[in-house]
Amino acid sequence: MAKTEETFTKEEKAAVRALAxxxxxxxxxxxxxxxxxxxxxxxxxxxxxxxxxxxxxVMSIAPDLQPKTFYGMQAYNLGAKTLLFFQDGEKFKxxxxxxxxxxxxxxxxxxxxxxxxxxxxxxxxVEKQVATLVKRAVKAKM
Length: 142
Known about the structure:
By secondary structure, the chain is of the alpha+beta class.
């Protein structure tokens, strides 16, 4: 049977390779922070601006979260597990950046709730929404 399409895109394959490399690293917390800041610096200007705002806000709300990379993206861990991450739009050639939360996040609301959010700009309303999400995500976890 002939294969007509790729199972994974080259960007997805690169993300999986990045995750494998991350798991082999034995970094100090300071080295993890430096790696996250390097990832942010490497982003396209518009995505970088959003990533910097997310980083600053997350660290001000939940300074006990450990910045680390997750599939090559900036992320924030609670202990050994990723709680939330920021995916720049360029990473998978998307038209927007994504703020995502893992199942560790305390976002539960009824029988259905969102775990990822598109971000296209930063303003007071977006900042307030992100702050609320981060606070809810870490509630009773720290």
